[in-house]
Amino acid sequence: MKIKVLIVDDHLVVRNGIKLMLDTQTAFDAAYEEAEDGLQAIKMAQKKKYDVIILDVNMPKRDGVTVAKTLIKENPECKILALTMFNDLSTIKQITGAGVRGYILKNSGIEELTQAVKIVHKGGSYFSNEVSQVMMNPKKAVTEKKRKPKLDVVKFDSTLTAREKEIINLITNEYTSAEIASRLDISKRTVEGHRNTIFKKLQVKNSIGIAKYAVQHGLD
Description:
Blueprint: E1 3-8, H1 12-23, E2 30-35, H2 38-47, E3 52-55, H3 64-74, E4 80-84, H4 89-97, E5 102-105, H5 110-121, E6 126-127, H6 129-136, H7 138-147, H8 162-172, H9 177-184, H10 188-202, H11 207-216
Helix pairs in contact: 1-11, 2-3, 8-10, 8-11, 9-10
């Protein structure tokens, strides 16, 4: 039976990236629905039961903390996995305090995302190593925040070719490697080569990383 997953994120490319990542796992079978803001997510979850809700924290209309509190108050059995780029102590306290079952970062690999969804679906909890370290050592996290008040700025490679930009656009629009190869009249092996090069240039590990790059650079 398919796992019914609701993906809540205000960026289409990120939602597509999540689906692309999960669908690469042959042992993972899911049916997806999407919400582009917190208010839409609440309305959808009130009308239909989902096995897992993958929830971004920073969204328009209703933020992730409000969404989690609302849905869990109405249904304590609601299984929510927070998937966000924020790893600060304040955000972790707020979203975990709302009752989510898991919290992982958007730079997580395919295997970790899949594992987190499966564990939360089965009623367990999953927190990435980075999040767990902050939760277990809050004083250290606060000290490091004071020492480094500004977030590190990721410098992306500016040498993307026209072909690589074209492939990024297709990836964020849910095209598989085989479909990209057919559309561009090149081999699947060539597509995979371009994909690996893109990962290295953008300093990302997965399709969500590419999606984040696309959002930041207006490619969505």
